[in-house]
Amino acid sequence: MSERATLTKDEVRELFSAYQAAGGEEERAGYRERLVDQHIGLVEFLARRFRNRGEPVEDLIQVGTIGLLKAIERFDLDREVEFSTYATPTIVGELKRHFRDKGWAVRVPRRLQELHLELTKTVGNLGHDLGRSPTVEEIAEAAGITEEEVLEGLEIAQAYNFTSLDAPIDAQEGSTSFAEQLGSEDEQLENLEYRASLAPEMAKLPEREQKIVYLRFYKGLTQSEIASRLGISQMHVSRLLTRTLAQLREALEES
Amino acid sequence: MEQITIKIPASPAYIGVVRLVAAGLATRLSFTIDEIEDLKIAVDELCAYLTGSQGRDGDLEITFAIADSRIEIRGQAQLSPGQKVRTELTEFSRMILDTVVDSATLQQADGAPVFELSKVKSA
After folding, report:
1. Residue A120 at interface with chain B, using a CB cutoff of 8 Å
2. What pLDDT does residue A198 have?
């Protein structure tokens, strides 16, 4: 890591010459590693452009690094382009493919974005006005759309990632620990018990997801109650919960 | 009770369809959003036992029945022979299901894994 992004253009070209001329795999691996170190900053920069799509940036950097390795493998020194120029589309392509493979569109279609925003707002307002969770009929009437559109909107929200839309609230939560977020000692004690029962799968979850699972299944709060307690929308709670349970299921299945 | 039956490939990719039908029927019963989301969590949880995370060779036949303020869902896996399906709920699944629906079971019935759940509208 010592020579990270410190080489000049010419030195990068020399490194490529050496890499391509190298005979043994061990020698090639050494040069390859230096080339990766040199360009990991580019991968990080590009990966961060995708950070609002719900995948941890560290994972995206790994995916981007695969793209970088492919670009290193294919780079032709005879080309008159700099390696970073050549590698960018390959890295971005790898990141886009990652999202496509996961079944998520890289861009959420405009119609769905609008539907999502409308539903989030309406569910929140109605819940507040009614003092209870609204029905689909009530939401459809308030939003001026059909019941089918409401159902579609609720379901489709699961498939897409609206992190960017929900982001301002996420940012506030920051790094407070799970224990800190839960007030009383009683709650902390229960928390210990429940964490023990599911560990280590549970411990791997982000703090907020742990808290949502805890509040829903151990404290019996409804999704709407959790939403107002955490200051996020009910739809966001639903999405996080559905995804988290799927992750836990997979983790338990593997173990 | 009025019934609707659908058949899907035993793959997690199609569980969303089951969720959607369940939500559509719950809407007819004027379930609240919270209740619908809970129902969908139960559907996810139980269907996942039948499909596994990677999907299995065969189909799931899902029957929905509604009456008054109750929805009942029964899912039966019709798989090609030799595929093992766990029909014992984990403690965690049990806790999830107890929280979100009124009753839920998973068992072997006539040699096929079957789940049943029911949820009653609260108010």
Report:
1. no
2. 63
